[in-house]
Amino acid sequence: MRILNMKRASTMMLAALAIAFGAQSGRAQMQVYGVWHCTADYCTWASAPDMTTFATQNNWILNRGNGSPSVNLVVLSFVNPLKLLNLTTDSGDTNGVPNGMTSSVVSYFENAGVRVMLSIGGSTYTTYWDQALAADPTQLGINAANLAKQLNVGIEIDYENSSSPNITGLQSFVSAYRSVIPYDATGANFPARLTIDLGAGDTYLSQIAAEATNNWLQDGNPVLDYANAMVVGENTTVSRYENYWSEHIDGYPTLGVDPLAPARLTGSFYLVGSKPSPNCTNFASSDQNTASSFVETVPPGGEGTTTGMLGLMFWAAGCQGTKTVCTFPPNTCEGGVGVGATTFGVPVPMPALRQQ
After folding, report:
1. Of 83, 101, 88, which is closest to residue 47 (Cα–Cα)?
2. Would you call 322 helix, strand, or coil by DSSP?
């Protein structure tokens, strides 16, 4: 235990030095560098995995080749919001929680210094978000907070209704969550981490973006920790991504969306399609390499005081769908994501996040 604590203390000291160096060089240190994870059953997490098999499949996440993790965050995807509200027990869930999202899975990552979150929603569960928010959003927020405490994880809101979202219900969800677990700027309390997925830019999920950006993500009184700008498409150019991310940072006045501090935003890229992308296998040719200058240096567009986005996320580890490859051997991603973690000096474990 003493050796482990010394190792973690050394890691955190190196992370602090990296952040300081980034500030001096004019390039912000990426603090969030993570993957969404869909395990082997296409994002349902319906059955508890054999942990020996799970460890073999996901070793690249914890070992980029030098014994250090390839990421500092894993987001288990997805929890059905209606089942969580009703605390449903069925063939794939127990008390509203997918059977595969176990304490053993969480510990597998967290024992290596990788933070874990659960994503509630996803595009498949949009209707269930609508139904849950219409039925009892306060209880849903309480249940989500209790789940976070039960597994010692954070929670991500992924509500993908762009045409007629229930903003009042979503506000009740957020307020209920925070009534159980207050905002924690230090990041020390894992269940206090509450984030939201927004569109790649502000023209998708515009009403949710306006509510989140204008009321929940402002530096003066933050309620959520940060937003993820979701993935657009497998073959989207980096320059187009940068235009999307700039919509968040600069705001979109005609849609009523205020500027978002760069330190409250992560960008996202695809890992795999019908075959692994360079983002997975070849850092030199990867989107994260090309985008790194923008991500690390983009200035505030009206909110915040520090340059640089919070970091990057990747969709998705595990098996995201029947038409894509899985990130299991031999299609592992330490050559792209892992090399990126080394190149960017990603701190593991994740430090306290920039607040401005």
Report:
1. 101
2. coil
Tokens 């939201």 correspond to 196
Q: Using CA atoms, how far apart are residues 280 and 337, in angstroms rounded to an integer?
A: 6
According to DSSP, the β-strands at 194-198 and 227-229 are parallel
pLDDT per residue as tens digits for the range 206-219: 999 999 999 999 99
Question: Cβ distance 276 to 226 under 8 Å?
Answer: no
- Name the pLDDT band for 235 (thresholds 50, 70, 90): confident
| CB-CB contact of 229 with 298 (8 Å) | no
* DSSP three-state, residue 64: coil
* DSSP secondary structure code for residue 313 in this structure: E
What is the DSSP code (8-state) at residue 172?
H
The amino acid that residue 151 corresponds to is L
Average pLDDT of the chain, as a whole number: 93
Q: CA 133 to CA 35: how far, in whole Å?
A: 27
**Tens-digit pLDDT profile for residues 246-289:** 999 999 999 999 999 999 999 999 999 999 999 999 999 999 99
- Please tell me the distance from the alpha carbon of residue 239 to that of residue 244, in angstroms, as a whole number: 9
User: What's the average model confidence in pLDDT over 154-182?
Assistant: 98
pTM score: 0.93
> How far, in Å, CA of 344 to CA of 18, rounded?
9
CB within 8 Å of 7: residues ≥ 6 apart: none
Question: For 67, left (φ over 0), alpha (ψ -120 to 50), or beta?
Answer: left
Under 8 Å between Cβ of 229 and 242: no
DSSP letter for 204, please: S
Which class would CATH give 2-343? Answer: alpha beta
Which among 343, 319, 344, 313 is positioned nearest to 331, based on CA atoms?
Answer: 319
Asked if pLDDT for residue 15 goes beyond 60, the answer is: no
Tell me what pLDDT residue 21 has: 42
Torsion of CA 229, 233, 234, 238, to 10 degrees: -60
